[in-house]
C-alpha cells in the first residue's frame, strides 16, 4: 500500500476513532490529543503496517497502547518516592494528620440513628451493610426480595434524613 493510499484510508477512519478516544479519556480535549497522537504514530510507523490486515484494528491498538502509556507515565509522575534516610517527611506542612474526634462523633451518631430504626427496616439494612446480597437477606428473613429492597431503601432514606447534618462532610 502506498503512503498516499494509507493516508487516505487513515483519514477515513478518524471519524470512527474519535468515540473510542472519548471513551478512554472521558474528556473532549484529551480525546482530541489522543487522536492526534495516534494519527502521528500511525503516519510515522506506516512502514510497519502489513498490507492486507485490518487497518482499523491497527489504529485502535495504537490508540489503546498510547492511552495506556500516557496513563502510566502520569501515574509515575504523580508518585512521590521518599529518598530520605528515615523515609518520612520532616517538617512537612503538606501532610497533616487530622484529629479523628469528629469522625468518632459522626460514627456514634450513625450508630445511634441505625439503632433507632424500626426493627423491620434495621435488620435488612444491617445485613446488606455487612455484605449480604438481597436474595440472601430474603432467604434468611423469609420475606420477598422486593420487600427487602423496599425496606433497605426506606432505611437509607430515613438515615439520610436523620444524618443530613453530615451531608456536606
UniProtKB/TrEMBL annotation:
NCBIfam families, per the entry = sigma70-ECF (TIGR02937)
A Pfam family in this protein?
A: Sigma70_r2
Query: Which family does the record claim for this protein?
Result: Belongs to the sigma-70 factor family. ECF subfamily.
Q: What residue stretches are annotated with the RNA polymerase sigma-70 region domain? A: 17-76
Q: Does the keyword Transcription regulation apply?
A: yes
Q: Which CDD domains match?
A: Sigma70_r4
> rRNA processing as a keyword?
no
* Protein's UniProt name: RNA polymerase sigma factor
Which keywords does the record carry?
Sigma factor, Transcription, Transcription regulation
Annotated Gene Ontology MF terms?
DNA binding; sigma factor activity
Which residue numbers delimit the RNA polymerase sigma factor 70 region 4 type domain?
109-159
**Which Gene Ontology BP terms does the record give?**
DNA-templated transcription initiation
Q: Which residues cross the membrane?
A: none
Amino acid at each position: 500500500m502506498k503512503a498516499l493510499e494509507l493516508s487516505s484510508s487513515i483519514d477515513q477512519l478518524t471519524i470512527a476513532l474519535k468515540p473510542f478516544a472519548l471513551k478512554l479519556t472521558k474528556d473532549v480535549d484529551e480525546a482530541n490529543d489522543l487522536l492526534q497522537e495516534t494519527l502521528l504514530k500511525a503516519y510515522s510507523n506506516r512502514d510497519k503496517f502489513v498490507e492486507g490486515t485490518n487497518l482499523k484494528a491497527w489504529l485502535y491498538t495504537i490508540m489503546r497502547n498510547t492511552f495506556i502509556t500516557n496513563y502510566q507515565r502520569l501515574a509515575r509522575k504523580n508518585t512521590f518516592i521518599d529518598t530520605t534516610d528515615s523515609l518520612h517527611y520532616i517538617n512537612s506542612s503538606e501532610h497533616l494528620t487530622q484529629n479523628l474526634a469528629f469522625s468518632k462523633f459522626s460514627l456514634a451518631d450513625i450508630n445511634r440513628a441505625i439503632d433507632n430504626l424500626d426493627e423491620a427496616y434495621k435488620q435488612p439494612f444491617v445485613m446488606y451493610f455487612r455484605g449480604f446480597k438481597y436474595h440472601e437477606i430474603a432467604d434468611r428473613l423469609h420475606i420477598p426480595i422486593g420487600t427487602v429492597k423496599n425496606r433497605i431503601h426506606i432505611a437509607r432514606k430515613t438515615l439520610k434524613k436523620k444524618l443530613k447534618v453530615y451531608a456536606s462532610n
